[in-house]
Amino acid sequence: MKRVKWKEYDYKIQAGPGMSWVHRPLISIEVCTLDGREKVPVFAMIDSGTDGTVLHSNIAEALGIDESQCRKSVLGGIGSLDGFVTEVKIAIPDFKVEYRTPVFFGKGSSSNNVPVI
What we know:
The chain is mainly beta. It has one domain: Cathepsin D, subunit A, domain 1, CATH 2.40.70.10. It is 6% helix and 50% strand. It contains one helix and seven strands. Strands 1, 2, 3, 4, 5, 6 and 7 form a seven-stranded mixed beta sheet that branches. Strand 1 (11-15) and strand 2 form a beta hairpin.
């Protein structure tokens, strides 16, 4: 991946757990199928300490990804979330970067449903 210059982001306010308001570092990304035919724009939270990318399974559905063709997985941490893993392209327009990466698509609901990259 090419090096990019530091960019500071404003934190955006979103509804959080327990009817609270939380400030999160969100950026606009596009999640794309590997062939690039389908794209879904989403806001994703920047988490420099994450081990990988986590998205809700409804994004995979919008991309036309067939869950039955993907590797089943469970995301652990505080609690657990069932889902599946497959590779997609992620485009980050602010950095003019596009890359392929495996993504965990979680089924059901997590505490905040904010994609993490």
